[in-house]
Amino acid sequence: MLKFVLPAFAGFLMPIEREIMAKQVIAIKHEIEDESTGAVANYHVIEYVSIDYKYNSVVATLNGYVSKKAYEAGRNPLCSHSVTVNGLPDGAEVSRAWLYDKAVEQGNEQSVFSGAELIEA
Fold this sequence. Notes:
2 helices; 7 strands
C-alpha cells in the first residue's frame, strides 16, 4: 500500500492523506487445453518457485484452473506448467510480479505463456 500526502491548497488547512492500493499481478489469463480431458484452463497462478543461485536461474510452476472462481473455491488444478527463467533480477529479490512478467514475455520460447495477458487486482 502506498501513502501519499497531498500539499495544503487554498481552502484546506491541513494536508490530506490518501491511501492508494497499488495493483498487483495475481495470475495469467491464457487458454491451455488439457490433453487428457480436453478441458480448458484459463486462469494460471504461480504456486511453486525454485531459485538456483549458483547458476542464476529460476523455475516457477504455474497451476492452471478452469477459472478464477474454481481457483478461489479451492478446486484442484487442471494442469501444471513450469517456466524457466535464466538470470536473476539485478539488485532485487525474485518476486511473483517479476516471474509473471518473465513468463508472458514475448520471445520467451521456454514459456507456454509467451504473449499471454496478466491479470491484476
